[in-house]
Write a structure and sequence with these properties.
It is a single chain. The protein is α+β, with helices and mostly antiparallel strands and about 190 residues long. It has a single domain (about 25-185), classed as 2-Layer Sandwich (Alpha-D-Glucose-1,6-Bisphosphate, Chain A, domain 4), CATH 3.30.530.20. It is built from 5 helices and 9 strands; from the N terminus they run H-E-E-E-H-H-E-E-E-E-H-E-E-H. Strands 1, 2, 3, 4, 5, 6, 7, 8 and 9 form a 9-stranded antiparallel beta sheet that branches. Helix 2 (about 55-65) packs across helix 3 (about 65-70). The chain is globular and about 45 Å long. It starts with a helix and ends with a helix. The relative contact order is 0.17.
Length: about 190
């Protein structure tokens, strides 16, 4: 009897202290890592999220300096064309071209659907990796889910092999997760 009363008391305590689980908002989901290895053994670093805004708003966040500055870096520029670039710097006092500028050449894009970027590794990465890198790319897909919901899928491909490449992959796994969380926050009310 005493155990039953203690159990009941704990149940009441937990019920009053721990908030009830609420249903997830079906219009959004957390930023998820859905990375995988292909049948040929190549790694795909994949991050996905759904945001409660139309495709046009996501495209604007990705393809305008004003949009990029809201979530990717305080200093941003874009030359939206095949062969153009997205350039950013995390130092709000810097200018594009200053030390720390990240440059992402635009390989291709399909307006409001897809943009492919060549990832240029800067001097923060080992020289061997920079010299070997020929294929590292980020493919960003923007998918209309209907009802003013948009799915964003980022897939990084073209990874090399070895310990330095593993460190580089892990760096981008953490960085891309954070970056897409910032994008989701910016685009969510």
């Amino acid at each position: 009897m005493k155990r039953a009363l203690v159990s009941l008391a704990l149940t009441i305590l937990v019920a009053t202290v721990v908030p009830a689980r609420t249903e997830a908002d079906p219009s959004t989901q957390a930023v998820r890592d859905t990375s995988y290895t292909t049948q040929t053994g190549e790694r795909v670093l994949r991050i996905e999220t759904v945001v409660p805004v139309p495709v046009a708003r996501v495209w604007e966040a990705w393809t305008t300096p004003a949009g990029l500055k809201q979530w990717i870096a305080p200093v941003a520029a874009i030359d939206l064309r095949v062969g153009g670039t997205i350039s950013t710097n995390y130092d709000r006092n810097a200018r594009i071209g200053d030390s720390g500028t990240i440059r992402l050449p635009i390989i291709n894009y399909v307006e409001k659907q897809l943009i492919t970027l060549k990832v240029e590794l800067n001097d923060k990465f080992p020289k061997r990796i920079r010299d070997e890198d020929q294929n590292l790319q980020e493919i960003v897909q923007i998918v209309d889910m209907g009802g003013e919901r948009t799915k964003i899928v980022s897939s990084m491909v073209g990874w090399g092999t070895g310990a330095d490449w593993d460190k580089t992959y892990n760096f981008f796994a953490r960085g891309n997760q954070w970056t897409y969380e910032q994008l989701a926050k910016y685009l969510s009310p």
